[in-house]
Design brief:
Helix content is about 35%, strand content about 15%. With about 325 residues, the chain is an alpha+beta fold. It folds into two domains: about 90 residues, Phosphorylase Kinase, domain 1 (2-Layer Sandwich); about 210 residues, Transferase(Phosphotransferase) domain 1 (Transferase(Phosphotransferase), domain 1, Orthogonal Bundle), CATH 1.10.510.10. The strands form two sheets. Strands 1-2-3-4-6-5 form a six-stranded antiparallel sheet. Strand 1 and strand 2 form a beta hairpin. Helix 4 packs antiparallel against helix 10 and helix 8 packs across helix 9. The longest helix is centred in the middle third of the chain and has 19 residues. The radius of gyration is 20 Å and the shape is globular. The two termini are about 35 Å apart.
């Protein structure tokens, strides 16, 4: 496995390449090495040194690590380790070799309905797991992802579909550290209640997922707004484009599942990720067993078009799937 550089050690991990840098953290491709030639690639998210001394930011970073430590699902990126080196906390994450969904859908590309249905089912199973987590006393953790978007869906070259970036996820007992004047998440994928600053539960994630799946089918999101101000009002009011394009692209049954999840008030949507998954599973999707192969084909096609077909992690050629995600404090400090 070829690597572009050796950036030194961080704990027991050898840093190989810088992947991305955001307002709060930087990401590295790294190796965990052991005896007898054991080498495992991982992604390390390290808090920026200048922020590590500030308690608010350290607590945000630690909160993400604690949340991710509770996850254990095949469609959720795994947290593998957590440590502090020279005063800077770092989180070690599973490396997913492939492309994020934002890359796959770049320039208005679309996916066939059976594949969109499959990706949706994978993400709903991930959300069902995350939303349903409980503490040791059996009390619900009430985790809401709050940032479901194509950049946070990782597709592997072996057909994996994984949900990433829980940096702004929030549970019932986790404090909010949103910076004054900032809005968490990506606006075009937000649920109306998130824009309004109201209380959130898992149904907000279902709305966001439906926007994502709509975009994968139609080639653009469900809003016709041309400016940020128009988009803000359209999202706030769930002012969607007429459903004709969606029905043409998806077919009636799949479109109806998404349209229900896109209803303005949470009480009008599916009550849970499990309920939406059952509705999606009831839509004819062809041979579901073939869909992981289709995911792998789409990833290979995306990487080929970018000239990133070399074997192993692409730290030097093209954008890593992690370069767009897991930097929960954006450049604007939100």
């Amino acid at each position: 496995m070829a690597h572009s550089a050796d950036l030194g050690m961080l704990g027991r991990y050898r840093l190989r390449a810088s992947l991305a840098r955001g307002g709060m953290a930087e990401l590295f491709l790294a190796d965990l090495s052991g005896p007898e030639g054991f080498v495992k690639p991982v992604v390390i998210k390290r808090m920026l040194p200048q922020l590590a001394a500030q308690e608010t930011y350290r607590q945000m970073f630690a909160q993400e690590a604690r949340l991710m430590a509770t996850f254990g699902h095949g469609h959720v990126v795994s947290a593998l380790d957590y440590g502090v080196e020279q005063g800077s906390p770092y989180l070690v994450l599973e490396y997913v070799d492939g492309a994020d969904l934002a890359r796959v859908l770049g320039e208005g590309r679309v996916l066939p309905p059976p594949l969109v249905r499959y990706v949706g089912l994978c993400l709903l199973r991930a959300l069902e797991h995350v939303h349903g987590l409980r503490d040791p006393r059996g009390e619900p953790l009430g985790i809401v992802h709050r940032d479901i978007s194509p950049a946070n869906v990782l597709l592997g070259r072996t057909g994996d579909v994984k949900l990433a970036d829980f940096g702004i996820a929030k549970g019932l007992r986790t404090p909010s550290h949103t910076a004054p004047g900032s809005t968490r998440g990506r606006l075009r994928y937000m649920a109306p209640e998130q824009v309004l600053g109201g209380p959130l539960d898992g149904r907000a994630d279902l709305f966001s997922l439906a926007v994502l799946l709509y975009e994968a089918l139609v080639g653009q999101g469900p809003y016709s707004a041309k400016t940020d101000a128009q988009l803000l009002l359209a999202v706030r009011d769930a002012r969607l484009a007429p459903p004709d394009d969606l029905r043409r692209a998806a077919g009636g049954p799949l479109a109806e599942v998404l349209l229900r999840a896109l209803r303005p008030h949470p009480s009008e949507r599916y009550a849970s990720a499990g309920e939406m998954a059952r509705a999606l599973a009831a839509v004819d999707g062809g041979n579901e067993g073939e869909q992981p192969w289709r995911v792998a084909e789409v990833v290979a096609r995306t990487l080929t078009s970018e000239g990133t077909t070399d074997d192993g992690p692409r730290e030097a050629k093209g954008r890593s799937p992690f370069s767009a995600v897991l930097l929960e404090v954006r450049e604007d400090g939100s």
